[in-house]
Design brief:
The protein is mainly α and 334 residues long. It has one domain. Helices cover 70% and strands 2% of the residues. The chain has a two-stranded antiparallel ribbon. Helix 2 packs antiparallel against helix 11, helix 3 crosses helix 4 and helix 6 crosses helix 8. It starts with a helix and ends in a 19-residue tail after the last helix.
């Protein structure tokens, strides 16, 4: 038997099957998150403010995840008094702010560009680990930083005086900072005493509470949900009710992909899942081009690929011992 034929006739090992299962789940989640960007942009341009869409998405995700836990693991929803402050901070900064800044960014920028900026969060996490936690970080983090910054220069086309909307860019970086906070605190919380799914559920709950106090539900523009809106771009001749699009955002763009991402971590290390999830901005860019007619210049496409390469290096810059095995997808998808 010639070399290499052994592998062809030996059945796949259980570990190989687990990896394939995990990768399939991550890619499916990334596709759903990527599509969700264009759906969200249609809703935002239909007249629902970014902070209101954030409030609605948080409430819907919380109710869906809480219903699941109440049926299958009600004890996981129990909150100790000692963790209320941490969960509240996590929900507000790591969920409410991430989603809000993300929605503001995609409203003003091409969806793929907004995601690329937000996706620099893993690089911020690696830099925080190096300088904030004094953790050992591989030297490749500096290559990651150089690649990400170089790629963003190409994406922003700074030689033309920054062609991107400045508020959109600022919102993207604020989303990246909030997402980095989400990863750092979430990793610590999961390592200490919380499973990933109950942590996400309760964080969405505190994010909902935050928005409910800041902008009470009786002031919610419910009339917007009942309106018909154009699907814009190449689907501008078609219409859909805003409430149906919001339901897609909550279920198809939040609950299902979150469940897939969290489930994938039973089969994959967090770093491998994070790198595989980088398909999201690629999918988001393709969907936004095919649906909304958003196109990028060649330099921006090259810059986006360079940014993704830098993010991939950042994902693997920390030692395996330092990275928790139960990290989860960001609340905006990133």
């Amino acid at each position: 038997m010639v070399p290499g034929m052994v592998e062809a006739v030996v059945p796949a090992r259980p570990r190989d099957t687990a990896v394939r299962t995990g990768l399939t789940m991550v890619v499916c989640a990334a596709i759903l998150f990527g599509i969700n960007g264009s759906v969200s942009k249609v809703v935002l341009l239909a007249g629902l403010p970014a902070q209101r869409l954030t409030e609605l998405r948080s409430a819907g995700a919380f109710l869906g995840l809480a219903a699941f836990l109440l049926v299958w693991a009600p004890k996981r929803l129990k909150i100790r008094r000692s963790e209320i402050k941490v969960l509240a901070l996590y929900g507000i900064v790591g969920f409410a702010f991430v989603q809000w800044f993300y929605f503001v960014s995609i409203e003003r920028l091409p969806v793929g560009v907004a995601l690329l900026i937000e996706y620099t969060a893993p690089l911020l996490v690696a830099l925080w680990a190096r300088f904030g936690e004094h953790e050992h970080v591989r030297p490749q983090v500096w290559w990651a930083l150089a690649l990400a910054l170089s790629g963003l220069v190409l994406v922003a086309q700074v030689w033309d005086g920054l062609t991107l909307d400045r508020i959109g860019v600022l919102a993207g970086f604020l989303a990246a900072g909030s997402l980095a906070f989400y990863f750092v605190l979430g990793e610590k919380k999961v390592k200490d005493d919380r499973d990933a799914i109950s942590l996400v559920c309760l964080a969405f709950g505190f994010a909902t509470l935050f928005w409910s106090v800041l902008q009470p539900w009786w002031t919610f523009p419910w009339h917007v949900l009942g309106e018909q809106t154009s699907l814009l771009g190449n689907l501008s001749d078609k219409q859909a009710p805003v409430w149906a699009l919001c339901l897609i955002i909550i279920v198809g763009g939040t609950i299902i992909p979150f469940a897939l991402m969290i489930g994938s971590l039973a089969h994959l290390p967090a770093t491998q899942a994070g790198v595989a999830a980088m398909t999201e901005p690629v999918v988001a860019t393709i969907v936004a081009w095919a649906w909304l007619g958003e196109s990028l210049a060649l330099a921006q496409i090259i810059g986006g690929l360079v940014v993704l390469l830098g993010i991939g290096l950042a994902q693997t810059a920390r030692s395996p011992q330092a990275v928790g095995p139960t990290a989860v997808e960001g609340p905006s998808g990133a």
